[in-house]
Amino acid sequence: MELQLALDLVNIPQAIELVKEVEEHIDIVEIGTPVVINEGLRAVKEMKEAFPSLKVLADLKIMDAAGYEVMKASEAGADIITILGAAEDMSIKGAVEEAKKQGKKILVDMIAVKDLETRAQEVDAFGVDYICVHTGYDLQAVGKNSFEDLQTIKRVVKNAKTAVAGGIKLETLSEVIKAQPDLVIVGGGITGQTDIKGAAAQMQKLVKQG
Length: 210
Ligand SMILES: O=C(CO)[C@H](O)[C@H](O)COP(=O)(O)O
Known about the structure:
The chain is an alpha/beta fold.
């Protein structure tokens, strides 16, 4: 099981400072969608240059022109690139094809997918690397989480690794771990704490214990 730190509400220098603090406690650093919107793929490039041994995920949440966008994120240094499960089959297949060419990985974000069970099986057959259940900020605000959805994909996904994101905190991490995802994605549960390094270390400990 791996731990990914999601950085959403920072600029590039702040992102790099944060990662300096927690680098030893995380496996993957995510350049979140708002950071890409604000700073462009330069954020991915600068993060990879600053931490060459850390895997960098570009959370592009691709919806169209997937091959091209995967190519550009790969050129910037991303190791993993996200596409939406709600995208066209052709887009997801195009993302997988380009990622394979570039030696990169694709994570499919299932945010807002209504028939999760069916779509997860379809997407799994396209050869994607990760399938991620995700409760976004707007649904977190009304008390939703992805714990049940994680159990659903654990049941039906046969090839891809499984991932979970959305409002995971130290207090809820054990419940998430019980479902045995391959990847746990945490943003505010680390960056919103006073002791960021301590929070990352505690989360890493639980994730590694599995
Ligand atoms: O992709 C995202 C929002 O769309 C976030 O990166 C993801 O939800 C993890 O952050 P948090 O733990 O703060 O919810």
